[in-house]
Amino acid sequence: MLRNILLTCFLCFGYQVLWSDTLQVVRGDVEEGQWTVVREFPQKSFPRFVPAGNYSGITHLHDDVYAVVSDKSDSVLFFKFRIQVDELTGELRHVENLGYDVMVDGSRYDGKSWIGTDMGFDHEAIAKVSDSTLMVASEGFFSIREFFINPSPRNAEWNSRLRKIECPSTAFAPNYAFESLAFDSVRHYLWTIPESTLQKDGEPATPQNGGANKLRLMRIDIGDLKGIDAQHLEGIDVLRQNSDDSDSVNVGGKHFMEAYAYRMDKPTTNKKAETYVMGVSELCVLPDGQLLVLEREAFIPKMKLGAFCKCKLYLINPLQENPYPIEQPFCEATPYINKRLLLEWKTGLSVFDRSFANYEGMCLGPKLKNGDQVVILLSDSQDQYAGVLKDWFKTVVVREIRNEKDDKMRNDKLEMRNEECEMRNEKGEK
Fold this sequence. Notes:
The strands form five sheets. Strands 1, 2, 20, 21 and 22 form a five-stranded antiparallel beta sheet that branches. This protein has a five-stranded antiparallel beta sheet with strand order 11-12-13-15-14. It has a four-stranded antiparallel beta sheet with strand order 3-4-5-6, with no helix packed on it. The longest helix is centred in the first third of the chain and has 26 residues, at about 1-25. The protein has helices spanning about 1-25, 220-225, 405-430; strands spanning about 35-40, 45, 55-60, 65-70, 80-85, 90-100, 125-130, 135-140, 145-150, 165, 180-185, 190, 215-220, 250, 255-265, 275-285, 290-300, 310-315, 340-350, 360-365, 375-380, 390-400. It starts with a helix and ends with a helix. It has one domain (about 35-405): 5 Propeller (Tachylectin-2, Chain A). By secondary structure, the chain is mainly beta. The chain is globular, with a radius of gyration of 23 Å.
């Protein structure tokens, strides 16, 4: 009996300590208007409900349904996933691949084998940009293209009006093209950033050169981009037409893109790798327009054991920063975007550890009852490589730091509304 009492006290005390630490993280030295991580959950896999895949991008469709792209599919535009989280804590409860019904050629899946003329799409990222369309980043085609969520004969005539951005393959380092997409539905901005350093800006960071990737964060106003043919674009290194504005890109006199300078952290290892990937794998727009940036460093030696993947989640606010012309070379005076580290974690592969997870997809999940925001992340298992890797999912809960007086006013108003509702209900019952 005494043992049980002591155990209960210990658990309660431990819970209080953890909760206190969480609150301390929230209020620490974080300024008003910033975001902070209040809760991080261990990654989970759902092998019974999620077939092996190469899942690399995710966006919210509706309710608990999300669109997920695979970088190894030449037929499926996106898979529908049901992702359920605890409405109080944000912890993952269930993930299920519901299949697909939209093909990459803009048609609906009819149960027949897909025969396409184009191969190697390599879809890496996806973002819903309207009630009827979404945009997909293709690393294989070096493009960002708009598609219908639910294609039908009715909207077939509109296919030619869907937006498309193309860049030359020579602009990117090998296998380091478009890897991220995020859409700001309030301001109608589409955000993307090449995974690594552009060819014209130098070499990608490696354990051997010890450099830091210098990237071009791009903000595209797709409202202004509407109706502009991709042929107007000559590539990232020449993305300027009829423009007198050194900070933006214009096409046909329309201002539609601004670029910012972003510098990654340096590699954390100097060991020789068989496969080494260092870059930004995804972006995510927060409700106030700030961005989450997922920096990813994946190290895989020849024998595979000892492989690791380090992920860092940064917060940036580019709308409060100075743009940096995309055609202007980097220099010592380059105004790189200020970034603040929110979270970092590491997964690995060893004899006793098979947690290795290459996180490539990220999007907003639901809001919790207390207003906190869930962020959903997914990893690319390379088809559950060698039967060792898993399709991992992870949730992180973030909170916006607001003025306590404003919060009190909101809570007071909410309480008054609740009291009014209760009084009305009582009168109705009488």
